Amino acid sequence: MNTQSELPTGPSKAEMMQAVRELLDFIGRRPLGPELEAALNERYGAHTEGYARLLALLRRGIGEGWSCYAEIDGPDYRRGRIAHASPDTDGFTVESGCLRNVPGHYHRHPLGEINMIGPVDETGRFCGAGAGWKVFPPDSSHFPTVTGGMVTMLFFLPGGQIEYRNPPSAA
């Protein structure tokens, strides 16, 4: 059985979960796609206090050991689950990432994915996007690629659904 208590914690994690709860209340039951991406960049964009709070807590969590704690492919590709899908997270898993100039593992989003992008290096980009939000609709797939330096991120996966798979062959 997966419980939140199985995940790393630290002094600032409860505050992060409160900030996540406020964000998820804003997201509500909106479909994942371009309209949600625009709404997030308007209400929680890089110019807002809400974004600054989430980003500061994410980075504090790195120091406290509850975010970006698992090395995936060397020190330039780290992830860490912050929360399992549960009623408290409206059925989303909440993941963290810290990537520097790296293509991540190819995957499909059966129900979509929401990403908060926090460049550490000013030129850091996630899938071409800088500071703010990127939303992938259901049944989309990609290499989660970071270019231009280091980026810290939050990922929200509905139902925790993600399918790692082999990329399509180039024809």
Quick structural summary:
The chain is α+β, with helices and mostly antiparallel strands and 171 residues long. It has helices spanning 13-27, 34-43, 49-64, and strands at 70-71, 77-83, 92-103, 107-109, 113-119, 125-126, 132-136, 140-142, 145-158, 163-164.
Q: Report, as a whole number of angstroms, the end-to-end distance.
A: 43 Å
**SS-derived structural category:** alpha+beta
Helix content: 10-25%
Mean pLDDT: 94
Reading the helices and strands in chain order gives: HHHEEEEEEEEEE
Q: Over the alpha carbons, how many angstroms does the gyration radius reach?
A: 15 Å
Instruction: Give the count of helical stretches.
Output: 3
Shape, please? globular
- The fraction of residues assigned to DSSP E strands is 25-35%
Largest sheet: 7 strands, antiparallel
Low-confidence stretches: none
Query: How many strands?
Result: 10
Account of the protein in words:
- The protein is 24% helix and 33% strand.
- The protein is built from three helices and ten strands; from the N terminus they run H-H-H-E-E-E-E-E-E-E-E-E-E.
- The strands form two sheets. Strands 1, 2, 3, 5, 6, 7 and 9 form a seven-stranded antiparallel beta sheet that branches. Strands 8-4-10 form a three-stranded antiparallel beta sheet, with no helix packed on it.
- Strand 1 and strand 2 (77-83) form a beta hairpin.
- Helix 1 runs antiparallel to helix 3.
- The mean pLDDT is 94.
